[in-house]
Amino acid sequence: MLLKYIVKNYKSIAHPIEYSMFPTTQNLDHKYLVTLHTVQGPWKILRRGALLGPNASGKSNFIQSLDFARDYIVEAQKSGTRTGIPQFKGDFSDIGKNSTFQFMFYHNENVYEYGFTLDDFRVKEEWLMILGKTTFLPIFQRLTTNEDVTSIELSHYLGRKNSRKRRLAELLKETIKKNQRNQLFLYKLSENGFSIAESIVEWFYNIQIIFPSSKVHMLEMRLMQNEHFARFLSSKLVNYDTGINKIFAQAKKVQLNKLLIDMDIPQEIIDDILQKREGLVNINGRLFIFNEENGEPMLCEMILEHSLAGKTFSFHKDEESDGTQRLLDLLPILFGLTAKSSVFFIDEIDRCLHTKLTKTFINDFIAKEHRNQLIFTAHDVNLISLEDLTQDEIWFIEKNHSGESYLKPFSDYVLSPDTVDGYSNIKSYLAGRFGAVPVIKGDYSR
Length: 446
Prior knowledge:
single chain, 446 residues, alpha+beta, seven-stranded antiparallel beta sheet
């Protein structure tokens, strides 16, 4: 589970901002919390978090920073290439040329802190720590000086001195100091079988980040292969009042060459596809399956059934409303939440959705006990009513006069008796009491 995240010098984020899943309220309802058992005793952690703010405030940049860090951690970086870090473009001499990403998280009954700092060419700092009874203990620490000299200190967690594992770690340390300075040492350890590094890279790999343009991977196949999932999704679509009674997927034979021509696919790509005789191909959002026995192509289609005037009619996904299509991207998250825990980040969760549907989804997320977390951005001011989210779960994000994004926890504000009801909270927010609202300027063009 995510406990804290700090990011510095990424797009509109200049100075470090810290996001925390630690509650500030002692008597918070247990349904919003998970109790983690650590070496320092039980810690209570929030299961959900919301970042609210106006357009262009940096909400998406915050999620994108997580996406960048996650990909940099779990994907191999080619030696000698640039890091590709998109930094703040404003003029702040105190932030320097380095960007930092730092995570505190709970995994396999331990609390870890992992972070790295990089510039356009190299990793400048990297560290992995594990929580001890009094403080965090280093697993490894890496530092590159201004003279481009890299040193890495290893601890006993990477093997006893003179052991085979320790000698391998020492060799990897020397290699990364010479010509792999844009690569993360954590990834190198994981790649070479160090179990503690493999476990941590796996935690980052399991982070799910969903943008407005994200689509569920192979949804049609999941519907065809898992009847339980199809029934679950059908029941949710009924509960969310979409007008859909049932969703399923079916495969049918097609004249692939003609269909691809009708889809305006270039001929050279068509020729490559027609040579394929097995497996799956996704073409412009349409899934084709090749028969294992004879190589015949089959089009896998998602069908959504509606009842209209007592009769059943079938529709394809692209015939559904934008709101229904958004639900098809979100509702699969709720399936199997009691399984292995993950952190779900959703940018613009309320996109194309009625307030009631957004509230229903975020409440469905904590309907059962599990260790998954949901962290999302939104514009919908109705979420500030504190009817469905607690004050501890809400953060405001906005930009200052210098164009940099910063965070403010809603828990910093003491609500007076006249703002205890939801309507008063919304009025106070729109009036600018909590910030993070657009400032509409007058029209001076006349």
